[in-house]
Amino acid sequence: MLVVLALVFGAIAGMAVHFALPQRSLRGVAIGPLLGAALGTVTWTALTWAGLGPDAAWIWLASVLVPVVLTAADLVLLTRTRAARDARTRRELGIA
């Protein structure tokens, strides 16, 4: 049942990363929280299957830090990809 806390922490971390990174207009507002929630849940589940219990500090630390780091990396990559694709489309259409 504690996996729900990892899901909520991941969603909050994903939302914080979304608003902390520049060029928010190039990505959807929901992608950060959804990605963070998924990563938090997957991390918690994987560490639970690895044998860590909810009393271990590592499972809590990893369930918060993994979504922050991986969501930030993914959002930076998505933003760069979107900006490059938009620039290419503008060039092809003769807008820019």
Quick gist of this model?
The protein is mainly alpha-helical and 96 residues long.
Total strand count, please?
Answer: 0
Distance between the termini: 52 Å
**Form type:** elongated
Oligomer: single chain
Gyration radius over CA: 17 Å
Low-confidence stretches: none
The mean pLDDT is 95
Helix content estimate: over 70%
Can you tell me the number of structural domains? 1
Count of separate DSSP helical elements = 3
Transmembrane segments: 57-78
Keywords: Membrane, Transmembrane, Transmembrane helix
Protein name: Integral membrane protein
Organism: Microbacterium gawkjiense
Itemize the secondary structure elements and their pairings.
Elements: H1 3-20, H2 31-49, H3 57-93
Transmembrane segments: 57-78
Keywords: Membrane, Transmembrane, Transmembrane helix
Protein name: Integral membrane protein
